[in-house]
Write a structure and sequence with these properties.
Helices cover about 35% and strands about 20% of the residues. It contains nine helices and twelve strands. The strands form two sheets. A six-stranded mixed beta sheet has the order 2-1-3-5-6-4, with helices on both faces. A six-stranded parallel beta sheet has the order 9-8-7-10-11-12, sandwiched between helices. Bound molecules: NADP nicotinamide-adenine-dinucleotide phosphate.
């Protein structure tokens, strides 16, 4: 929170994130910095909620009038049964990462897809481009939805190719396949949504499958320069760290609640500063 602490009064709105384990999530740093920059009277906290307590936590949030709750690992699917409404996009993606209080009702949304699209658009246009999405889990579903909406052509490649094929067919991507298919795919962009590389030096694909001129984004953001991104740079590709997907999905959460454009550069600096303070942050958003 760049500089000063907020003054908490009877009017201060409470927001937060539910996840497990909470570890060193940097979401409070990002959101509190945005509140301070915009002069919004709110505070944002992290709540470590194990799966068995999620129902009580959501009931408590509703009773306490918490204005917005981000929802992270491992609750993004389970929470869909606990809210008053799930918006159509989040239902299509099959995951909710944001609960916003509207007229006393908790409405579930998904901002991961917006985060991915806006992060990619920092580097490149998406319309008509061929994108290889690595992974077929929850993050992949959000990214594929966003890319198709932006006019991209999408192939989904996954360790378990059957999951990739099912996702591709359900969401309307070109095709699914195995991670090893990347080498033979003339992709303009590659987006890693597998968890490979999280806190490790592994990459989901061999360096030789990456080419000069590609744009490569990793949803994994710890470490910031993953093995995949380092390999991509060495091969002459442009890279986008997962930090930007996280910052833009948080920015969209703020917009959903307040209707205001979020100060993304302020939030990115708060993310960096929180990482330096924590030493080795975890991956939960
Ligand atoms: P998930 O639903 O559990 O999906 C995990 C994916 O990783 C699956 O496709 C799985 O393949 C693949 N995978 C796991 N271990 C693998 C291995 N050893 N080799 C190859 N593939 C492997 O998880 P998720 O919710 O989609 O999250 C995925 C990652 O994205 C996490 O690191 C998460 O933190 C990150 N994320 C980042 C942001 C952001 O804002 N930057 C937002 C959301 C998520 P199988 O189908 O074969 O099991």
């Amino acid at each position: 929170m760049e500089g000063s602490r907020p003054v908490v009064s009877a009017r201060t709105a409470l927001c937060g994130i539910v996840l497990h384990p909470a570890g060193h999530t940097r979401s409070p740093a990002m959101h509190n910095a945005a509140f301070a920059a915009l002069g919004i009277d709110a505070v944002y906290a992290a709540f470590d909620v194990p799966p068995a307590a999620l129902g009580d936590a959501i009931a408590g949030a509703r009773a306490l009038g918490i204005r917005q709750l981000a929802v992270s690992i491992p609750h993004k699917q389970a929470v869909m049964q606990l809210v008053d409404e799930v918006d159509p996009t989040a239902r299509r993606i099959g995951a909710v990462n944001t609960l916003t209080l509207r007229d006393g009702r908790l409405v579930g949304s998904n901002t991961d897809w917006t985060g991915a699209v806006r992060a990619l658009e920092r580097e490149t246009a998406l319309d008509g481009r061929l994108v290889a999405v690595l992974g077929a889990g929850g993050a992949a579903r959000a990214v594929v939805h966003g890319l198709l909406g932006a006019g991209a052509k999408v192939v989904v490649l996954n360790r378990t190719p059957e999951r990739a094929a099912a996702l591709a067919s359900e969401l309307g991507a070109d095709r699914g396949g195995a991670l090893s298919d990347l080498a033979a795919t003339p992709a303009d962009l590659v987006v890693n949504t597998t968890s490979v590389g999280l806190g490790s030096q592994e990459s989901p694909v061999p360096a030789e499958a990456l080419r000069p001129g590609m744009v490569v984004m990793d949803a994994v953001y710890e470490p910031e320069r993953t093995r995949l991104l380092r390999d991509a740079e060495a091969r002459g590709a442009r890279t986008i760290p997962g930090k930007w997907m996280l910052v833009y999905q948080a920015a969209e959460q703020l917009r959903l609640w307040t209707g205001r454009e979020a100060p993304v550069e302020v939030m990115a600096r708060a993310f960096d500063a929180a990482g330096s303070r924590a030493g080795r942050p975890d991956q939960a958003s």
